[in-house]
Specification:
six-stranded antiparallel sheet; Elongation Factor Tu (Ef-tu), domain 3; 2 domains; 12 strands; mainly beta
Amino acid sequence: MKDYLTVGYVTKPHGVRGMIKVEPLTDDITRFKNIKYVLTEEAGNYIKYKITGRSIAPSVVLLKLDGVDTVDDAERFRSKYLYIPRSEGRKLEDGEYYWADIIGCDAVFSDNGKKLGVIDSIIDTKSNDVYVVKTDKDDVLIPALKIYVTVDAEHNTVYIHRKGLEEILPDED
C-alpha cells in the first residue's frame, strides 16, 4: 500500500501572491479545511509545504503555501499532484478503499483467475465509481459495485464477476 494519498491536482497559479488553484481528488472537498500541509513529489522525494491560507469553492480549492509568494513561485506547482501521508487520511469503513490502493491493481476474473488487465483509473459518477481497466486491446469500464467486483487490496487484485457484465466484457480469445 502506498504511504501517501493524492488529494489534489494543481491546475495553475491563482492571482499574483502565489496562490495555487487545485482540482480536489477527494470525495469530500471540505476535507481541505483540516489539512495543515501537503506534499509534492520532486525527483522521487516528497517535499512538505505548510498551508497558510485557503479558499474552498464548490469544485476547486485555492491554497496559499508557505514560501510560495509570487506567480513564478506558484508556477512551479502547475500540473503537479498534492499528497498527504496515509496516516492523515480519513478512517475507512469496512469495504472502503482509497483510490490509490485500487489504481494499479490487476483485474482478474473470479471464475478462472485469468487476468483481464490493470486498473488504470477510476471515474467518479456520484452514484458509484467505475474502474477503467486497461487491457491489451481497449479500455473496459467496470462498475465498482459489490455484485461485479471484489477488492483484495492486500494482494493488489480486483476480482471481476462476469454475471451481468457479459455485454461489456471483451470476448475471450
